[in-house]
Amino acid sequence: MNRVESLTEIISFGARREQAYSCLVGGSFESVCEQIVVTKQHLTEVLNRYIIGDICTDDLEEWAMFVECRDDIDHSAIEDYIYALSNPTLMGDIDKDKVVQMVQLLTDI
Q: If you ran DSSP here, which 8-state letter would residue 52 be given?
């Protein structure tokens, strides 16, 4: 799995996510100039997985922190949401009601 495939797997919360993390940690990628874009659709899909219980609050927060801290991930379209999810202490705890509201806002745009 290369860097782009690994990032895509993590962003989409794919089944091979753990393998993707391992590839990123152990891989030496020559060129890191290509950015992966996280879209509103990616975020909506991850939030919906949280709502139905496929992922827990800690997983959602860790996912947002990963997206926020990577220079090779462009999250500018959802920057405010990523900030809120990765800083629950500052922005208020993550809960199902807030996530449902986020999805509604994302789908109304």
A: T
CA distances from 44 to 35, 38, 56, 88 (A): 20, 11, 15, 18
pLDDT tens-digit profile of 23-44?
888 765 555 567 889 999 999 9
54 phi/psi in degrees, rounded to 5 = -70, -30
Taking the C-alpha atoms of residue 108 and residue 8, their distance in angstroms, rounded to an integer, is 25
Q: What is the pLDDT of residues 72-98, one digit of tens each?
A: 899 999 999 999 999 988 877 889 999
Stated pTM of the model? 0.86
Exposed / middle / buried, residue 54 (Cβ in 10 Å: 0-12, 13-18, 19+): exposed
